[in-house]
């Protein structure tokens, strides 16, 4: 067996961030061959990942990244809040975001197969699992594409616990960023009432009618009460109809229109939501 030098151990330790004891054992098993030792550590990382796979991942980070005419919002989960401040975990979130931007994959499984310095994104995740001893999962992501005349807005709140991504047709970057801040704060469900299914609209209308009748309102005015309450409800859940947080005299749609733009898309992620 070849003698493993301290310089070899240090070099592999610096490259992988794995514990010194584990690095030395890998080098000993590889007879001093650093490349083979790296393969051994990767296999160990995959095994560690398998043992952690059922652990709950209720914490994590959300991130937004843009490049040219593409933007992505990503959520990566871990077991503890402590890990969200870890530089290796933050680096993994950035690595995943950048890989998605560069390759435009369709699904989470596609992302895990993308190339990385460790082999694949899945290998990179296994590596961080190995050194942090926590289960880590890529929960979801959403890619948006714009034209040269469109604008992205991004906002990350509370250290990566909430993030929003907005796409505007026209307007400007500052307007898009302001709307992204609004989305993070007000948590709209839909872009406009047109995005609500007929089934959901009918259900909400029926519930409002039932509430009005149960409160003793005369039947002849119930339809007017329902109409008013439905308008208020839609103004709470639809981005276009919400009062803009920076100017409550305007709806969000009116604010964007005043900047010669139009709402096109939005995504909001929050750690802990279903």
Give a quick set of tags describing it.
274 residues; alpha+beta; Helicase, Ruva Protein, domain 3; Tetrahydropterin Synthase, Chain A; three-stranded antiparallel β-sheet; 10 strands; 48% helix; elongated
Account of the 3D structure:
Its main location: cytoplasm. The protein has helices spanning 6-16, 20-29, 34-52, 87-103, 108-112, 121-132, 173-186, 198-214, 219-237, 252-258, and strands spanning 59-67, 70-78, 115-116, 119-120, 136-145, 150-157, 162-170, 243-244, 247-251, 261-270. It is of the alpha+beta class and 274 residues long. Among the domains are: 6-52, Helicase, Ruva Protein, domain 3, CATH 1.10.8; 54-145, Tetrahydropterin Synthase, Chain A (2-Layer Sandwich), CATH 3.30.479.20. The strands form four sheets. It has a three-stranded antiparallel beta sheet, with helices on one face. A three-stranded antiparallel beta sheet has the order 6-7-10. The protein has a two-stranded antiparallel sheet with strand order 3-4.
């Amino acid at each position: 067996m070849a003698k493993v030098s301290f310089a070899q151990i240090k070099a592999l330790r610096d490259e992988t961030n794995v514990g010194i004891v584990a690095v030395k054992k890998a080098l000993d098993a590889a007879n001093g061959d650093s490349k083979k030792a790296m393969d051994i550590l990767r296999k160990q990382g995959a095994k560690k990942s398998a043992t952690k796979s059922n652990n709950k991942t209720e914490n994590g980070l959300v991130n937004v990244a843009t490049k040219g005419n593409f933007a992505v919002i990503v959520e990566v989960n871990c077991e503890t809040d402590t890990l969200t401040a870890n530089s290796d975990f933050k680096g993994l979130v950035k690595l995943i975001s950048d890989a998605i931007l560069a390759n435009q994959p369709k699904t989470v499984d596609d992302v895990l197969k993308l190339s990385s310095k460790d082999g694949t994104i899945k290998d990179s995740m296994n590596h961080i699992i190995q050194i942090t001893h926590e289960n880590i999962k890529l929960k979801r992501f959403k890619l948006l594409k714009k034209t040269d005349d469109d604008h992205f807005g991004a906002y990350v709140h509370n250290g990566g616990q909430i993030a929003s991504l907005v796409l505007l047709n026209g307007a400007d970057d500052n307007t898009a960023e302001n709307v992204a801040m609004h989305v993070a704060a007000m948590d709209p469900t839909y872009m406009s009432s047109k995005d609500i299914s007929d089934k959901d609209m009918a259900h909400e209308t029926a519930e409002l009618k039932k509430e009005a009748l149960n409160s003793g309102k005369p039947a002849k005015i119930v339809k007017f009460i329902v109409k008013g309450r439905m308008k208020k409800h839609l103004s709470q859940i639809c981005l276009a109809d919400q009062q803009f947080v920076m100017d409550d005299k305007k709806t969000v749609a009116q604010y964007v229109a005043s900047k010669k733009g139009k709402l096109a898309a939005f995504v909001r992620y929050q750690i802990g939501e279903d």
